[in-house]
Amino acid sequence: MKKTIFWLWGLLLATVLQAQDFNTYFCDKTLRVDYIFSGNASVQSICLDGLSCLPAWAGRKHSLDRLPLTGNGQIAVRLPESGKVIYRTSFSSLFHEWLETEEAQSVTKGFENTFLLPYPLQPVEVEVTLLDSRHRVRTRLKHMVLPDDILIQQKGGTDITPHRYLQQCGTPDECIDVAILAEGYTAQEMETFYRDAATACESLFGHEPFRELKNRFNVVAVGSVSKDSGVSIPRLGEWRRTAFSSHFSTFYSDRYLTTSRIKSIHDALAGIPYEHIIILANTDEYGGGGIYNSYTLTTAHHPKFRPVVVHEFGHSFGGLADEYFYDNDVMTDTYPIDVEPWEQNISTRVDFSSKWEKMLPNGTPVPTPTELAARYPIGVYEGGGYSAKGIYRPADNCRMRTNEHPAFCPVCQQALRQLIMFYTEP
Predict the structure, then answer these.
(1) Cα→Cα distances 66→31, 70, 331, 424, Å
(2) What is the Cα–Cα distance from 271 to 279, expressed in whole angstroms?
(3) Per DSSP, what are the bridge partners of residue 53?
(4) How far is it, in rounded angstroms, from Cα 225 to Cα 229?
(5) For the domain with range 163-319, which CATH number is right: 3.40.390.10, 3.20.20.70, 1.10.760.10, 3.30.70.260?
(6) How far from 5 is each of 10, 15, 114, 256, 425, CA to CA, in Å?
(7) What backbone torsions phi and psi does residue 269 show, to the nearest 5 degrees?
(8) Which SS3 state, helix, strand or coil, does residue 2 take?
């Protein structure tokens, strides 16, 4: 009995101390920071594009100085006098992907990026770092934020986008807040959007570990109206006026559906608590995309909508890598085979102990032959991260490999569960 009492007191004390830590440095508001990532394959730079204040903070209030994942980029908030890190997070971006394209060898472009930080009570230094595929620093920017700066725009107080909660399991600081946005739905099509959003929510929470940990999520459907119905399909010469100007043929890949208008996404969400974003496109064209800690964007009326929205959320929320690959292809630009990827569900075996090595059953052959997949649901199967050789996946099949497989593999489930616990457990 005494042990139980001491344990409860310890848990209570830890919770109080963590809450005090947040309240020491931050208030219950959000600092929205807009950047432009620009450059080409040779030279990159980061420019500060604007600062905004949102009326509440929906993110974590514990583990403030810990990274959820390494990511392709990181943000650190520091006290300028001591250098103490008081908040840290990570991300990926469409800019990172574009730098690997042939176009980036000869063209310079700029990409919008927006990040949400807890609002500081005192002047802080914000550092943004972009990493390359070898985890080396590409470029970084340091800048000061003064909380009483008169040029920090106040947003989200009025003209809030109409929205409906599909699932509300707690307050924003207790739960992970997911916003589902409408893209290519006119005002007359909003009821269709809300039905599509409910389908996306149902599909997501039909998968483990989201099913088991459903009560740790709030989900809100946000009715962002477009002038035109549908989304732009450049290869067909179809360009639509939509809320976020999304289009297929990103980087000339027909089914890659993205948007570079990141600020418009966050403007539509101002005043609504949110952390992670799903955008539903009103089209039956096949495609989508998911970028870690940025957004999921997928088509709502294709027959494979249900598995695709879950797959893409695996990218944007979980930072999971694609486990599919192309026969006889080795893409060493995306994942150099002499460097361990940061994503938890692929490995080059350079640092396999940091991945799922401990989950392997005794006697598992490494590499694991695919003909033994039924015997080894967790193995080391060659092929993943777009490469047929040198990169390994933990299961023969998984939601991160094909639309036909009904579930995330055990390693992906563990990675997602750990991330959910990171966000919701003090």
Answers:
(1) 19, 10, 31, 14
(2) 18
(3) 31, 154
(4) 10
(5) 3.40.390.10
(6) 9, 15, 45, 55, 20
(7) -100, -5
(8) helix
Domain parsing of the chain, residue ranges = 24-154, 163-319
Q: Which residues pair with 179 in a beta bridge?
A: 220, 277
Tokens, residue 171 = 């307050």
pLDDT of residue 2: 47
Joined together, the tokens standing for residue 73 give: 């980029």
CA-CA-CA-CA dihedral for 268, 307, 312, 97, to nearest 10? -120
Q: So what CATH class is 24-154?
A: mainly beta
* Rounded Cα–Cα distance for residues 344 and 412 (Å): 7
- Omega prior to 118 cis, within 30 of 0: no
Strand 288-291 versus strand 295-299 pairing type? antiparallel
Look up the pTM and report it.
0.94
DSSP 199: H
**Rounded to whole angstroms, how far apart are CA atoms 280 and 203?**
13
Distance CA 252, CA 208 (A): 34
Contact by Cβ (8 Å): 218, 167: yes
**Sheet strand arrangement including 325-326:** 325-326, 386-393, 381-384
Residues 6+ apart with CB under 8 A from 236: none
Which of these, 232, 265, 266, lies nearest to 246 by C-alpha position?
A: 232
Q: Which of 62, 66, 67 is nearest to 18 (CA)?
A: 62
Q: Which of 164, 192, 158 is nearest to 180 (CA)?
A: 164
Instruction: Name the E strands within 171-274.
Output: 176-183, 217-222
DSSP per residue over 106-156, as a string?
T--EEEEEEEEEEEESS-EEEEEEEE-TTS-EEEEEEEEE-TT-TTSEE-S
Question: Phi-psi category of 269—alpha, beta or left, where left has phi over 0 and alpha has psi -120 to 50?
Answer: alpha
Q: Both ends of the chain: CA-CA distance in Å?
A: 24
Give the residue from 117, 125, 123 showing the smallest Cα distance to 59: 117
Q: Count the neighbouring beta carbons within 10 Å of the beta carbon of residue 235.
A: 10
The string of pLDDT tens digits covering residues 168-188 is: 999 998 999 999 999 999 999
327-364 pLDDT, tens per residue? 876 666 789 999 999 999 999 999 999 999 999 999 99
* Cβ–Cβ < 8 Å for 218, 273: yes
